[in-house]
Specification:
The complex is a heterodimer of chains A (199) and B (266). With 199 residues, chain A is of the alpha+beta class. Chain A contains 7 helices and 9 strands; from the N terminus they run ααβαβββαααβββββα. Chain B has strands at residues 4-10, 13-27, 31-36, 41-44, 46-52, 57-62, 73-78, 90-99, 102-103, 113-118, 121-125, 128-130, 133-140, 144-153, 157-166, 182-185, 196-203, 206-207, 212-217, 227-230, 236-240, 247-252, 256-262. The chains are: A alpha+beta (199), B mainly beta (266). Chains A and B meet through helix 1 and helix 5 of A and strand 4 of B.
Chain lengths: 199, 266
């Protein structure tokens, strides 16, 4: 309808489907907003360091507005479902870690087992749909303490993305940021062409 | 060796359906789930007719749609994906017949009637039946909330209800119209995923306590209604909305099947 979307809807629209991982990201975003007392209509200075590239990060991007394009989303490939959300204006930061046993309810476990099964029977497809509904309700109604550990941390000092003029790669002819280009003995290469020459 | 070959009986002839089956599980809605020693799985809408285990043979028979009593119902839907209409737009609706939000393409109609209840009172609306869909054009309605009902009398009375929003922000209570069986939303507000939605079941205007209310949603993979609730002391039941698209609530007794379509834009 002609209305502002709820945070949950924003996340689902952005991610493309509903899954337990995305819903956990929705709950983490909810926790960050509550803890930092940020009104997204007033403040857009939030930034996030994410230690995973799983589904939940899409909820962080869609709800908190921390995106790669805006330069306020930093990815650290640690393979951990941990988000550090901070407000530069308020000089406050929260580190949110998903509990190891967060998704151990039987319905979510069965859902995840079926979700990664290669082939499903018609019965299992229907079961998967029912399990997602049960998991949805379970995740959205759990107290935040049941799902996450969190603590206040210092506001991370991060360098803002450096924007330099583009130069042309001598091999592929495409533009590349000057500070990312590699100068060899006889040419200026983009990282991709440099790697292909090495390989 | 305890596995058996499964044969499907079709028009008096046996066809090999699956070899070396070692697991058969009857499912809901007349289905059989089968798995063989090679790990292959199949589901058939069938019933076991005979088992000759000495000869490792199981004969199954297809269950036709006619043999399955699914309880035909009718429901209303908006003929727009936008979730509501703007003032000045033609308000178009569809009436469908089938079960579990799956329209029966061979539906036979028995002169259904459509009634509108809005700010300007109650009136009947024209319905044009075309194939399995009943088309309703209410014309250009004024800003407001309209309750639309469809009724068809046959072996059972079929009732369908839908709220049509013209314009925005019509959040208020509604009045029932005293039908034999009616599902009323508890206050009109935009329904969202991830929230509870409450309805009340009324019989001739009175709350119905302890009855089974079922709910389904568009494009469910379930053959039957995925949600079943029981009304409380006030005839109310709540459902946590987890699916995209519209929901359909259904309640029935010996004489009537009544539905309410909950329109969501997402």
């Amino acid at each position: 309808m002609c209305k502002d979307m709820s945070p949950l809807e924003k996340a689902i629209q952005f991610h493309g489907h509903i899954c337990p991982g995305l819903l956990m990201g929705v709950r983490a975003a909810e926790l960050a907003l509550e803890y930092l007392q940020v009104d997204l209509d007033q403040d857009d200075d939030l930034a996030a360091i994410v230690e995973t590239n799983f589904c939940g990060v899409d909820a962080i991007q869609a709800i908190l507005g921390c995106t790669f394009g805006k330069g306020n989303l930093y990815f650290r490939d640690y393979g951990k479902i941990v988000y550090t959300i901070f407000s530069r204006k308020k000089q406050q930061a929260i580190r949110i870690a998903q509990r190891f046993e967060a998704l151990d309810d039987p319905n979510t476990k069965r859902y995840l087992a079926l979700r990664f099964q290669e082939q499903l029977t018609t019965e299992e497809e229907a079961e998967l749909e029912d399990l997602l509904a049960l998991s949805f309700e379970w995740i959205m109604s759990q107290p935040l303490e049941r799902l996450f550990h969190w603590r206040q941390v210092d506001v991370p000092e991060l360098n803002k993305a450096e924007i330099t003029p583009s130069v042309q790669c001598h091999k592929c002819g495409e533009g590349v940021l000057k500070n990312k280009a590699v100068l060899t003995d006889d040419s200026l290469l983009c990282p991709e062409c440099r790697l292909s020459m090495e390989g | 060796m305890c596995e058996a070959n499964v044969y499907l009986l079709k028009e008096g002839r046996e066809e090999l359906f699956m070899e070396k089956v070692d697991r058969i599980i009857p499912g809901e809605d007349n289905t059989l789930f089968m798995e063989n020693i090679f790990g292959e799985r199949r589901v058939a809408k069938a019933a076991i007719r005979e088992m000759e285990l000495v000869h490792h043979r199981i004969i199954i028979e297809e269950v036709s749609q006619q043999q399955i009593n699914v309880g035909t119902e009718i429901w209303l839907d908006l003929d727009t994906d936008h979730g509501h209409f703007h003032e000045g737009e033609e308000v178009r609706l569809n009436l469908l017949k089938g079960y579990n939000m799956k329209a029966d393409l061979d539906a036979v109609w028995e002169s259904p009637q459509v009634i509108l209840v809005g700010q300007s009172g109650r009136r009947q609306a024209d319905l044009h039946l075309h194939s399995h869909i009943g088309h309703i054009n209410l014309g250009k309605e004024a800003d407001g909330l309209i309750q639309v009902y469809a009724r068809e009398t046959g072996e059972k009375e079929l009732i369908a209800k839908l709220l049509v929003e013209v314009g925005h922000h019509h959040h208020h209570e509604m009045q029932h119209i005293g039908l034999p069986l009616e599902i009323m939303p508890c206050g009109y507000a935009h329904a969202r995923m991830g929230e509870n939605y409450e309805v009340q079941v009324l019989q001739n205007g009175q709350p119905l306590v302890g009855v089974e209310l079922r709910a389904t949603y568009a494009n469910t993979r379930n053959r039957d209604y995925p949600h079943t609730m029981t009304t409380d002391q006030e005839g109310k039941a709540r459902l946590f909305l987890t699916a995209r698209g519209n929901y359909l609530f259904s309640v029935s007794n010996e004489e009537t099947i009544s539905t309410f379509t909950l329109v969501k834009s997402f």
